[in-house]
Amino acid sequence: MSKTGWAWTWFGFLLALDIAIPWFVLTHVEKMSGAFLFWTIWVAAAIISAFVIFLKWKGAKR
Amino acid sequence: MSTVFWVWFGIAIYIAAGLAIAVMARRRLGAGMSEFFLANRKVGGFVSALTYSATTYSAFMMIGLAGLTYLSGVGALGFELTYLCGMFMMVFFLPRYWLVGRKYGYVSPMELLSDRYQSKWVGATAAILALVFLVPYSAAQLMGVGYLMNGISQGAIPVVAGIIIAALCAIAWSNIAGMRSVAWTDAFQALIMIATSAVVLGVVVAALGGFGSFFGKLESASPGLLTVPTAKGAWSINMFIGYALPWLFFLISNPQVSQRLFIPKSVTAMKQMLSGFLIFGFIYTLISVLWGFSATLLVPGLAKPDLATPTLLSLPIIPMGLAIIVMIGITAAAISTIDSILLTLSSVWARDIHKGLINPRVSERREVRVGQWVIPIMTIIAFVFAWWVAEQPGNAFEFMIARLSVAASAGLLMAVPAIFGAFFWKRATAAGAIVSCVVGAIVVLLFQITGWKPLGWWPGTWGFIACLILFVGVSLATKPPRKKADEFIGYLKQKLSEGRFI
User: Fold this and answer.
1) Whole-angstrom distance, CA of residue B165 vs CA of residue B155
2) Would you say residue B21 has pLDDT above 70?
3) Which of helix, strand or coil describes residue B264?
4) Which of A17, B27, B268, B469 sits in a 20 to 30 Å window from B290, CA-based?
């Protein structure tokens, strides 16, 4: 699979977790260490993966 | 001196500083559409990051999102962070917009669509979509300022006065030097937004005994707010998707933010823009949600959730001076969004409707002037809408800032398949783009107005499904602009490879 394909797959996986974990795994955890902590770590993972990709960009000639 | 006096004094200082920055920006203003609406595509990374942040994050955050958290708990965090996760797609779209913007000289995102699909009607359709659906979004910003000033002054300043001040500032800052004045004032305002909100959250958390004590109190006093769905039934999966889906694609569906993908002066500036925004967004979202949670502990039982922030700011634990500075920070967030929307809508009107459909031979100078006229007209429309909404009785959930903002973005979502098609699908056609935008928008409007939710799915979800099916179906049944598609996507393929983009 191309790098673009991997990046789209990773993004799709993150979106699947967005629903699966809070509604099906953490739905009875009434603490800050439940959905609140999950979403915070989850988005940090998305941000870090974006950094990994775009820090490799270099100037393109027109 | 009274609170009302200090509120007016703070607003006067803020307006004076903003005007001074806008006037300074005007000294560098050159001639032409690209200069007025895109600052000649020469904005540095730092200012690009801050203008993108200030345009994206509005009164919605510290008032709307805080109010939504106050009302419905942790699902509000998930919904807003889903938007931020969607920013991952910038790794695909930022270099693509930036490269074709430079190559073909596009001024608005709609012009890109017109050219790629070889049909002025595609751009005009997307332009009308933006003109219609950005009115409630702008109105939500104006309302935010109105509620805030009214709340902090404990009713002494009428809501409509705040709405008028916000509207006048937005007109001035977008008209004085176009993108240059908007970007510079945005940068100034973004710094105020994040600094003031962080300080005031610190004060409130300290009053609650520190983060450990704050979280402990929250878990014991409102445990139902920390799960999805909540104890009161908010944040079903359908509700979450209804809110999050339009937000997920905000980076390309909202032209006031996608237009900013044209402005960085270099690849380095692009990287700075994206990294700065992601860090800003992460911090500001957590601050806004924690702020909403602190309101559930300190000012429970409010009839109107959008008043959580103003009510919290008027408590004695927050020094009056700090409350006024925070009010200015939130006002800045609202105005920096409205002026960007106004500037984008004026460029869209001038380029995609006036030049595209009405007068193709219009000079650039005249085009800029037409755009400048649109700014006050759109402001008046948003002002009337905001005033009408603010007059609605009680705690009508339908008229909450968060709800209005999402409803607006649900309409704008209908341009997303056409935008994806432009960059990734050579078989996409103008007919597919137009039919999907129009029918999708009608579905969204009908479902919004009637409140109809078949299967419990929200208007944006139904509209998007209809839009997607029509886009693919109609495109396959009609003839694509093969030559342009090959040239456009071929150019991108070559440049993306050269720049190590993906």
Assistant:
1) 16
2) yes
3) strand
4) A17
Tell me how far apart the alpha carbons of residues B370 and B346 are, in angstroms, rounded to a whole number: 8
Predicted local confidence at residue A61, as pLDDT = 52
Identify all chain B residues contacting A14, using CB atoms and an 8 Å cutoff: 85, 88
Chain A residues closer than 8 Å to B278 by CB: 47, 50-51
Q: Which of B48, B92, B226 to mutate to test the interface with A (most CBs of A within 10 A)?
A: B226
If we measure between CA atoms, which residue out of A27, A18, A58, A60 comes closest to residue B83? A18
Chain A residues lying within 8 Å of B78, measured CB to CB? 18, 22, 35, 39
**Domain locations along chain B:** 3-398
B68-127 pLDDT, tens digit each? 999 999 999 999 999 999 999 999 999 999 999 999 999 999 999 999 999 999 999 999
B188 residue type, one letter? F
Count of domains for chain A: 1
- Domain membership of residue A35 (yes or no) is yes
- Contact of A21 with chain B, judged by CB distance below 8 Å, is answered with no
Residue partners of B285: CB distance under 8 A and separation at least 6: B61, B65, B77, B80, B81, B84
Q: Which domain holds residue A13?
A: 3-54
Helix B401-412, helix B120-152: angle, nearest 10: 170
Q: From CA B403, how far away is CA B51, in angstroms rounded?
A: 24
Of B228, B268, B498, the CB nearest to A27: B228
Q: How far is B239 from chain A (nearest CA, A)?
A: 12
The CATH number of B3-398 is 1.20.1730.10
Q: Report chain A's terminal Cα–Cα distance, integer Å.
A: 28
Q: Which ipTM did the prediction report?
A: 0.96
Burial class for B338, CB neighbours closer than 10 Å (0-12, 13-18, 19+): buried
Q: Is residue A11 part of a domain?
A: yes
Q: Which residues of A touch B500 (CB under 8 A)?
A: 56-58
pLDDT at A60: 52
Is residue A62 predicted with pLDDT exceeding 60? no
Q: Please provide the average confidence, as pLDDT, over all residues in chain B.
A: 92
Interface test with A, best of B69, B98, B425, B501 (most A CBs within 10 A): B501
pLDDT score for B395: 47
- Kindly state whether residue A60 falls inside one of the protein's structural domains: no
Alpha helices (H) along A1-62: 3-20, 35-54
- Cβ contacts of B57 within 8 Å, gap of 6 or more: B190, B193, B280, B281, B284, B333, B337
**Arithmetic mean of pLDDT, B209-237:** 92
